[in-house]
Amino acid sequence: MVTAFVEMERSIIELGNKQDKTTTIGKTRIVTKDCNGNPTSQKTLVDELPPLVSALKSSAQQNAASFHFPGHNRGRAAPSSLSHLIGKGPFLHDLPELPELDNLFSPAGPILDAQKQVAKLFGASETWFLVGGTTCGIQAAVMATCSPGHYLILPRNSDISAISAMVLSGALPKYIIPEYDFEWNIAGGSLHPSIRLLLWQVDKAIQELEKEGQKPAAVFVTSLTYHGVSINLTKISKLCHLRRIPLIVDEAHGAHLGFHPRLPYPALHQGADIAVQSTHKVLCSLTQSSMLHMLGNIVDRERICRCLQTLQSTSPSYLLLASFDAARAQLSANSGTVFNQALELAVETKNTINEIPGISVLDFPSFSNFPAIDPLRLSIGVWLLGLSGFEADEILCRDYGVVPELIGIRSITLAVTLGTCRKHIQRLVSGLRNLSATNFLPAIHQGEKGDDMEYAVPFNNDNNSGSIRLSPREAFFARKRKLRRCKGAVISGAADPLLSSIVICSTG
């Protein structure tokens, strides 16, 4: 597999190079290289640098007497320990909100141009850049739709950012309980019934609130999940829109959706009113950069702006902002084919791993022509080897230098991106084959091997897990005491951020 990058004059990602004295922007040439840095192919020429990248480049090239922050003064006082590691380039381009660089909270120049180009590419009415990650976007989305005492319908395994959003907004949760797959130890594992189940649960939650004289302020769902499971949102969005209820989608793991027919459909294309995406996950912007997309007019855009102004830094990083622009340009250059090679490699890898004895790959058959799972996300089950995901991760990391994205009790999850290469895939496959050869014993009953661990049940309808005693805001500010965990018990989802809002404790 190849890794795509952009060679540009005085680029913000060329670290440590001498400053370019010319002011000509010129053309940008996109080249692909393999893991060893060898060029393999050339892509379409782009006429000019993206607007925000261009503005940052021009500003950094000025022979300015700088009496402004940050204190390193365009790299002149950059800490040597870090500048020796990454070069002076990042410091040179680490600039504040200068007039020529626009203002994130009231954009009228290159930031506005960059956001408009992103909105057009992703099919949004409007897009906002987030320098506080998807957490900031989810908090803003909930605060923009829910006032204190209003109800938010959401699955019980939603990301902790949705919980913190209710703490900030004063919203009350109306929980729906997700289906749980105990074989994989993940929520929403068995997709066929869960598509219908989630729609039915949302409808039931709306009706229950209406019987109490309440109307939900918003519905919040997650698609894709951390494991790449996609939800068919079309019917849910129609159900919500019949009652003028906004649908908010945590699409942190789905910024790449819609850019290849083999990928699940993006939330905006299925009628979501707000979709929040982590641009840095599968796309190639810098870590912590995310986007909030809005479609339609159900949600008040001015309220979104006010919430973002409350939550975001008044000193945003222009390195992060420029990386949005660069990632959009990279995607735009070949939007229909940019993921071809990554998908081919992911499918080939999955087929190879499926042939290894004792190892499983999470997958679902197609459902009504709806792509059910992101093929770029590989969740690999190791329980038939008598190993936990943590043990498998330790061996793969120690012996093969393989580092997964997520570690679970019974599996590990890996992300295939534009930067994934065949050489690294070969190391992964070699490691898994060694795990199988060392630990797989066909003579042992496979249904029992590795099943001797004790699991706590994270979602239990019998215990009425959808009810609450305190609102998230009340619970956040309440006095607390720590309880001991039962000896030998395993807290399900301890390494899974999607389950991080669940607290299971015991006095035993």
From TrEMBL:
<dbReference type="InterPro" id="IPR015421">
    <property type="entry name" value="PyrdxlP-dep_Trfase_major"/>
</dbReference>
<dbReference type="InterPro" id="IPR015424">
    <property type="entry name" value="PyrdxlP-dep_Trfase"/>
</dbReference>
<dbReference type="InterPro" id="IPR052357">
    <property type="entry name" value="Orn_Lys_Arg_decarboxylase-I"/>
</dbReference>
<keyword id="KW-0663">Pyridoxal phosphate</keyword>
<dbReference type="Pfam" id="PF01276">
    <property type="entry name" value="OKR_DC_1"/>
</dbReference>
<dbReference type="GO" id="GO:0003824">
    <property type="term" value="F:catalytic activity"/>
</dbReference>
<feature type="domain" description="Orn/Lys/Arg decarboxylases family 1 pyridoxal-P attachment site">
    <location>
        <begin position="50"/>
        <end position="356"/>
    </location>
</feature>
<dbReference type="InterPro" id="IPR000310">
    <property type="entry name" value="Orn/Lys/Arg_deCO2ase_major_dom"/>
</dbReference>
<protein>
    <recommendedName>
        <fullName>Orn/Lys/Arg decarboxylases family 1 pyridoxal-P attachment site domain-containing protein</fullName>
    </recommendedName>
</protein>
